[in-house]
Design a protein that fits this description.
Layout lengths: L6 E6 L3 H12 L4 E7 L2 H11 L3 E4 L8 H11 L4 E6 L4 H10 L3 E4 L4 H12 L4 E2 L1 H11 L14 H11 L4 H8 L3 H15 L4 H10 L7
Parallel strand pairs: 1-2, 1-3, 3-4, 4-5, 5-6
Helix pairs in contact: 2-3, 6-10, 7-9, 7-10, 8-9
Length: about 220
């Protein structure tokens, strides 16, 4: 029986104790390996260049180069590496700046180890990962931003089920298991949802559904 492919992670946080704790949380999952770690942003970019990891976990405030600038550099030079911002800051400017810089996820350091591991898996699979508090802020930010000229097609019952599960943070495989369908079928339904709602990602689809009061974030 073949082993699951490892998710290779580069970790950057300027607090050694915090970094050690994050590493221990991540490596409790046998599918995740922290291949390198550092305390500053410049070295973080250099480690991404050397290791070509699947995921980079960055703090925002770091010496030499902050997490925002490090994310921009990584996404420009090594777009195959996805970035998870893991920080204590839940202020709107930080959140939106991180996502605009190219981060695939934004998680607060108050998140549980399970939430952190799930976020890394989701980002490695090409999905997004947002803490509930961050997701709600995005809803408020995007309220009213949808063009009135765009016609929104109604979703099918199955599409609504998938969107509701996606809003709970489930990945495609988890949704497939919950609904007894393949993850490829889930991906097909998500593609239809994106087309109908005129969005490009599952985060945007969930935000739209929350804004329209189709679903409620717990």
């Amino acid at each position: 029986m073949s082993e699951l492919p490892l998710i290779r992670v580069v970790l950057a946080d300027d607090h050694a104790v915090v970094r050690k704790g994050i590493r221990e949380f991540l490596e409790e999952d046998p599918a995740i390996r922290v291949v390198a770690e550092t305390s500053d942003g410049e070295q973080a970019v250099a480690l991404v260049a050397r290791e070509k990891p699947d995921v980079a976990v960055f703090d925002i405030q770091m010496p030499k180069m902050n997490g925002m600038d490090a994310t921009r550099r990584v996404k420009k030079e090594f777009p195959q590496t996805r970035v998870l911002m893991l920080t204590a800051y839940d202020d709107d400017p930080y959140i939106f700046a991180a996502l605009q810089a190219g981060a695939s996820g934004y998680l607060l350091k108050t998140a549980s180890s399970d939430e952190l591991v799930h976020a890394v898996h989701a980002i490695a699979a090409g999905e997004s990962a947002l803490s509930p508090a961050v997701a709600k802020k995005l809803v408020l930010r995007t309220t009213g931003s949808k063009s009135k000229d765009e016609t929104i097609e109604p979703l099918t019952e199955r599409e609504m089920e998938i969107l509701q599960l996606a809003a709970k943070g489930m990945g495609n495989k988890q949704i497939g298991v919950a609904l007894s369908i393949s993850d490829r079928t889930v991906q097909g339904h998500l593609a239809n949802i994106y087309t109908k709602l005129h969005v490009g990602t599952r985060t945007e689809a969930v935000m739209f559904a929350v804004r329209e009061k189709w679903i409620v974030l717990e």
